[in-house]
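User: I'll paste a sequence; please echo it back and then give the predicted structure.

Assistant: Echoing your sequence first, then the prediction.
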Amino acid sequence: MKQYRLSRIIPVAGTVVTVVRQRPPGCPVMLPHGDVDAMLATGFNATSSAHSDETMRISVAIGPDAWPDVVDRTWGDAQTVEAAPEHGPDWHRLTFRTSGWLEARGWILSLAAQARVEAPEMLRTWLREQIEQMRSDLTPECDQTRSRMSDITSHHA
């Protein structure tokens, strides 16, 4: 892109040029970095947590296979970790408060059977609905394919 010096376009003698910088309509306001950091402090390291005042306390039991990826990280404010032996040996309970609960949902789903949501009930209900939807998406054709694959692998074992 070619750039032109303003002094070459406008005659210098006696002309005063005032440049006013305004944001176009609809352009997002730029916040100071400190304000952004404060807003996202409880946001599950999320960039889309727009409502930092709407926090939720999440409690999830984490299984031993997922624990190495979870331990030694901060997931939200007032984070606590304790043993959760009622879920099995080497399970841990992670509890934290976050405004990034939408992002936390995806994270919990990514842990699959290695995560058991204990609270809040709203998150448990959402997760149950997701599991039911995934289960209903498994058609009989998928089950037949899985059965054939099992037969093939058992013959080669």
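The CA atoms of residues 85 and 91 lie 6 Å apart. The longest strand covers residues 56-62.
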